[in-house]
Specification:
There is one protein chain. The chain contains twelve helices and 18 strands. With 416 residues, it is α+β, with helices and mostly antiparallel strands. The chain has a domain of 286 residues: 4-Layer Sandwich (Metallo-beta-lactamase, Chain A). Strands 1, 2, 3, 4, 5, 6, 7, 10 and 11 form a nine-stranded mixed beta sheet that branches. Strands 12-13-14-15-16-17-18 form a seven-stranded mixed beta sheet. The protein has a two-stranded antiparallel ribbon with strand order 8-9. A hairpin with a 2-residue loop joins strand 12 and strand 13. The protein is globular and about 60 Å long. The chain binds zinc ion. Zinc ion binds next to loops.
Amino acid sequence: MRGSSYALNSKLKSQAIPAALFGEAPFGADPAVPPELPALAAAWIQSCNIMPGIIVQALQNAMTPKWGRTARLAGTGTSKRQSDIVHHAQPMTPKTQPTTIVYGTSAPASMASKAGQDVRITLLSDGTSWWDGGGTFGLVPRSKWSKLLPPDPNNLVPQELRCVLIEADGKHILVDTGVGNKPNDLIAAQYVVERPNGTLLEQLAAMTLAPSDIDLVIFTHLHGDHAGWATSRAAPHGDTGSVAGEIVPTFPNARYIVQQTEYDDATHTNERTRNTYFPENFVPLKKHGVLTLIDGDMQITPSIRVVLTPGHTAGHQSVIVEGFAGALGSHVPAAEVAPSPIMLLGDLAPFMIHFERLPWVTAYDVLPLVTIETKRRWQQWAFEHAAILVACHDTRVPVGKLVRNAKGLYSVEPLS
Ligand SMILES: [Zn+2]
């Protein structure tokens, strides 16, 4: 296995947005945009009619599945498990509205309706999966975590398979892709999934979005519960020229982005990591030439950057959405700067309790001591920036803000 490189205190590298991400040629420069902006970021702002200044307009209509579900699938027959991760033949309409966070513009009303001005973040889900609580909470004694998350009789606790759709800068960007629909015995045994609100693709369809509408997929990392829908088996009579049954990219017009370190580790597994990565989820992306491997922190669009947050895996990254403030920095009048950036934590903290408490680290983390240091750094950042946090597996608190209580301890206050 190759040596993994990671930098705990890496600063945002001033990298221009690579045109190769979207296969687009660079645009011309906009003299109205600050000259120190990377050229492509400036061009994006120009091309998307983005105005500086943002406000949070609306938050939440949680689609969190009900806690304390009694139906248990673990221990049932394989056929039952298999059927639970097979894509539904008929599209389902989600029973609840997804959580949506909208960053609007402070531009005059006449400008506000222009396409591309808003940054809209919608929390989606590929279902709920039940995992052993010991995996989720690692060294934390059961007597402690079970008070917060009571397990079922088999010691299982529910994990939301949360994915996030970001509509920003004229693009549809998906962060993580659930477990997907390519069941094999290993996946079926690990990921028992309940999908009362349908699959990720069905939830996108309910928003009138087809797979072909997705421009970019960002993976926090490549574990099986985050990379599943990246690829699908081609239909018997597909129109893409692919062979029936061949594994192809699910989102035919998308670029997929992951850290180089993560891809290297996912393709050079050891006895510890082998069962967490399924090559059919990501190797075909490379074969089809749609995978972009990046090294460290990077500005992806004017509104979106990724930051290396190692620990769960060495190449794990989180996503920060800062609207226009992040792109324009000090050129935005203070009153118009976004009040809060949004951080999609990924498995840096699968539940909010993991973000609140540094020693609470999952048993799946390959570098648990690194996780603690990464969390220490981002706790401070989140508190100082009053960041809106999104947890990828938390079934109770999908969105929250880090606050300090009277004792000086951090806690996450749900936003609802
Ligand atoms: Zn995960």
